[in-house]
Amino acid sequence: MSEQKGKVRAGLMGGMIRVGFAGLLSMLLAACAGNSSLPLSEAQRAAADFDYVIGPGDTLEVFVWGNEELSSVGVVRPDGKFTTRLVEDLEASGKTSTQLARDIEQSYGEYVRQPVVSVIVNGFVGVPSQQVRVVGEAAQPASVPFRKHMTLLDLMIAVGGMTEFADGNGSVLVRTGDEGQKSYKLRLDDLLKDGDISANLALMPGDIVIISESWF
Q1: How far apart are CA 108 and CA 93, in angstroms?
Q2: In the predicted model, is pLDDT for residue 19 greater than 70?
Q3: Superfamily of domain 59-123
Q4: In angstroms, rounded to a whole number, what is the distance separating the alpha carbons of residues 57 and 78?
Q5: In 10 A of CB 48, how many CB atoms?
Q6: Separation of alpha carbons 115 and 65, rounded Å
Q7: Using an 8 Å Cβ cutoff, are 186 and 29 in contact?
């Protein structure tokens, strides 16, 4: 009899601990998110000014007009550098494809008369500041390259939605702007489960989506 009472007491204590953790998490998320409303016009303005820059892991195709033997395809190394047929260790990360093409032309000018170079990006990874990250209870947590006019719904499709343990409406978006880092409440359950399109929003490069876990 005393053993049964001990099991009941242990179960109750475990339940209280879980409730305590859930309440603490809710308070932390509430404090983080506050009552801030997401500035949609700011995101739209960022999307309009968005220029993709090359990052480590991107696949590049270098085409040299009239000198096809110098054309090549390669991947930007983890150190951000890229090697062509004639030049080693060109700094590629953080540059647009046009900027890199001009750099290659300048380097090739030592070997080829008035080279004309085009750089095409075929595989997109991007630099961290131009990625959108999803962590927590996403089906496939990942860093996703930002795309112009990208929305929260696009991002959730890219990561396969949420797990069955996710608290979609308890999730937050963390955004870094001119005034520092701010957090905003998200309504992922309303968006993905109820089809409430008003819960959708425009994203910005560097956004982080934290999908919290449901404790009940």
Answers
A1: 19
A2: no
A3: wza like domain (3.30.1950.10)
A4: 7
A5: 9
A6: 7
A7: no
